[in-house]
Amino acid sequence: MTRAPVTGLSNVSRGALVGLLLAGLVAFGLVADEYLLDIGVLVGVYTILGLGLSIVIGQAGLLDLGYIAFYAIGAYWTALLSTHFGVNFWVLLPTSAAVAALFGVVLGYPTLRLRGDYLAIVTLGFGEIIRITLNNWRELTNGPMGIMNIPHPRIAVSGVGVLEFGLKVQTYYYFVLVLAIMTVFVVRRLIHSRIGLAWKAIREDELAAGAMGVDVRRAKLLAFGLGAAFAGLAGSFFAGRAGFVSPESFTFAESVLVVCIVVIGGAGSLAGVIAGAIVFIALPELLREAARYRMLAFGVAMVTLALVRPQGLLGRTWVGEERDEDRAAEAGVARGITSRVSGGS
Amino acid sequence: MSALLGVRHLTVRFGGLTALQDLSLEVRPGEIVGVIGPNGSGKTTLFNCITGLYRASAGSIAFGDPPAELAHLGPHDIVERGIARTFQTLRVFPNLSVLENVLIGLHCRRRAGVLGAIFRPTWVVAEEADAIRRVSELLAIFGDRLLPRTTWPARSLSYANRRRLEIARALATDPRLLLLDEPTAGMNPTEKQELTGVIRTIRERGVTVLLIEHDMRVVMQTADRVFAMNYGERIAEGRPDEVARDPVVVEAYLGKMTSRA
C-alpha cells in the first residue's frame, strides 16, 4: 500500500521480471561451476544479512555496527546444539533465528535512548563483546579453535530416500536461494506494512513519531529483534554448510561489510541490498586477477558512488516534476525561518 | 458539562528556570480555546506537557470523562487516548510521501502486527484499504492543496502545505482534543483566512481545539475563549475581545506605559 511512489513498472511487467530473474537464478545453479556457485552461496548469505540489517538501518534508521554478532549467535547455537545434543538441523534453523531475535531485543533494550554516533559505538561494543566471549569462553565454545564436525543438513523422507547436503555446493546454492527468497518476501511485506511505516517515521523524526502515536520503544525493539532473526537464520545456514565455526568469522570487519551492502545499495531499498551484496561479494571475487589493485579500485568506486549517488545504487527516487515546488518549498522555508526569528515564541 | 481537559497547578522547571508556574486551565468539549502570550511565555511548554514530551515538576493533567491522569503516560499513550498535536517548528516526515505522513497518524488506530504484515489476512488488507480511504477524506479538508500531491515527499511541499499536512496527520489519530501550535505561522493572509475556516470545520467535526496563535485576527475569528500567559503564568482568561483589551495582556505584549514628562 505504501510502495515506492514511482517504479516505472506495471504489476504485470514487474511480475514477469521477477519470474525471469528467478528462472535465471535456478538456471545458474544448473550451469555454473563450483567456483561460481560458491560465490552464489556467499552472495545469498550476505543478501539475507543485508536484508535483515536493512530493517534496522534502512527502515528504522538505527546504525547498528555490531550486527554480525547475531550471525555468530545463530551459527554457535546451531554448532553447539548439534554437536553436543545431536539436535536436528531443521529444528536449529528456525530456533537460531528465534534465539538471535531474543538477543537482538535484549541488546537493543539498553540502547533505546541512544541515537546516531552513540548508538553506533554501543552496538559496536556489543558486537565485540559477543566475539570476545566466543573467543575466551573455551569450556563452551572451544575458543579460537572453534567448533568442528557440525553435521551437515539432511532431508530424510521415509519411503523416498535421503538427501545428504554434505559438501555439494549446488545443494547449498538452492538452499540459500530458498532462504533468501523467503527473506525478501518477509522483509518486503514488513517494510510495506503498518510496522514498516512506523520504522520509517522513527528514522525521519523519532520525537514526532512518538507524538503521532507510534510506540517508539516497541517499534525499535521489533526492528532489532526481527533484523537479528535473519542474521541468526543466516548463521545457522553457515554453520550447517561449513561444518565449522570459529570466532574469526565474526569480526568487526564483517559487520562493516554488511553495513556497506545496506548503505551502498540504498538504505531502505530491497533491490539495492541485493545489488549491494552482489557488488561487495561477487565483484571482489571476480576481480581477483587484479588482486593488487582490487581494494584500491573498490575504494575509488565507493567514494565515487557516495558522491554521485548518495542515496545508494537503488535508493528511493521521486517524481521529477517537483522541481518548481522544491524551489517554492525552499522559499517557504526561508520565509518560515525569518518569521520564526521575528515572531515565533 | 465536565471538562475534557483539566490542567491543574501545573509547574515545570528546567533547572533554575521555571517555565510554567502553578498553571491551571480547563477546556470543555467542543470549545476552541486560544492560548496567547509573548515569546517565551510557556505556551509550547504547556503543549509539550499535555502531550507527554515534558514531565511536569508538579501538578496534574486530567483528560476525558471520567478524567484520567496523563502526567505519567508516554506520548503514544496520550495520542491513543485522544490528544493530537502539531508542531510550531514543522516536523513532518520529510522523506515520506504525503500519504505516508498521514498514514503514520493512523498508526495507533490500526492493529496489524508482524504476523499480520507477513501473512496479510483479509482483515489486514481491508484495514489498509480503509486507511487509504481515510487519508483521502482527511486531505480533502484542505481542498486540492494536498490531494493531488499524495505521492510527493513532504519535504518538497510548500511551507503552508507542510503546515496543512501536519494538521491532517494529527487528525488521522482521531483525536478528541487537537493542539495546534501556531498553525498559521509563515502563511500569507489568504492562506491564514483559509486555515481559519479549516479550524472551524475541525470543531464542527466534534474535535475540541486548543490553539496557540500569534495572529490576533485568527484568534478572534476562531476562539470561544482566550487564555493569556506570560512568564509561565496565567495573566488573563475570557472572551477574545475582553482579553485583547485587558491592560495586563496589552502590557505583556507592549510593555508598561511609563508616564514620562
Description:
The complex is a heterodimer of chains A (345) and B (261). Chain A is an all-alpha fold and 345 residues long. Chain A has 14 helices and 2 strands. In chain A, strands 1-2 form a two-stranded antiparallel ribbon. In chain A, helix 2 (34-59) packs parallel to helix 7 (169-191) and helix 7 packs antiparallel against helix 10 (216-242). Chain A starts with 10 loop residues before the first helix and ends with a helix. The model of chain A is unreliable at 1-7 and 319-345 (pLDDT under 50). By secondary structure, chain B is α/β, with parallel strands linked by helices. Chain B is 38% helix and 23% strand. Chain B has helices at 43-50, 75-81, 98-106, 114-119, 122-140, 159-172, 189-204, 216-222, 240-245, 247-254, and strands spanning 5-14, 17-27, 32-36, 58-63, 68-69, 83-85, 177-181, 208-212, 225-230, 233-238. In chain B, helix 5 packs across helix 6 (159-172). The N and C termini of chain B lie far apart (52 Å). The model of chain B has no long low-confidence stretch (mean pLDDT 94).
How would you classify the helix and strand content of chain A by structural class? Answer: mainly alpha
Order of helices and strands of chain B: EEEHEEHEHHHHEHEHEEHH
What is the N-to-C order of secondary-structure elements of chain A (H for helix, E for strand)?
A: HHHHHHEEHHHHHHHH
The end-to-end distance of chain B, rounded to whole angstroms, is 52 Å
Number of helices of chain B: 10
**Rg from Cα of chain B:** 19 Å
Proportion of β residues of chain B?
A: 15-25%
Q: What is shown here, in short?
A:
With 345 residues, chain A is mainly alpha-helical.
